[in-house]
Amino acid sequence: MMKPMSITELKKELKKLDYSELIELISSLYKANDKVKMILNVQFIGEKCQSELLDAYKKKMNAEFFSNNTGKMPSLKAAKALLVDFKKLGSFEMILDLMLYYVECGDQFTNEFGDINESFYASLCSVYGQFINQLNSNGSEALYLKFRERIYNLVLSSTNTGWGFGAFILEKSLELNWNEDEQ
Predict the structure, then answer these.
(1) What is d(CA 112, CA 84) in angstroms, rounded to the nearest whole number?
(2) Residue 143: exposure state from Cβ atoms within 10 A (0-12, 13-18, ≥19)
(3) Residue 60 class from Cβ within 10 Å (0-12 exposed, 13-18 middle, 19+ buried)?
(4) How many whole angstroms separate alpha carbon 176 and alpha carbon 135?
(5) How far apart are CA 183 and CA 181, in angstroms?
(6) Which of 3, 43, 72, 114 has a 20 to 30 A CA-CA distance from 139?
(7) What is the rounded distance in angstroms from the CA atom of residue 127 to the CA atom of residue 163?
(8) CA 102 to mean position of chain CA atoms
(9) How crowded is the C-beta side of 36, counted as CA atoms within 13 Å?
């Protein structure tokens, strides 16, 4: 099997092309690949496209947790894959929004169908920890205020959940930089 070019090699080859060849190449990639189409739409259409994309990813995320509402264990692997995929497309704020939504879906699943297992909660805690850490390190008070009510509702909703999930959500939430006045 042939080894793919490195990014450095690709850039070197692209520099050899003239402007019209680059436009033709990008246009053909746009037509042939839905992922490329999505990336370029986000790049050039901007926030409106990202917002619609976030809504679409939230619907997919919800479907992973609540397919047929039977209480069947959600595919956390598929749900996390949505997070990874969206990180390539969304803005920082929208990525945080989807991360929080992942945890909210897991919490809602528990509240509807009962206590799950340790690995389920470990996954939720991992994503919530990343959410809080990223909000603290790269966020702002305005962004925190946008998520504050959802964070508060998650803390309340998860309070009596087992496997240390509720305690983790509370403790991690108290680590927020903008939380001092509310404690």
Answers:
(1) 26
(2) middle
(3) middle
(4) 8
(5) 6
(6) 43
(7) 16
(8) 7
(9) 9
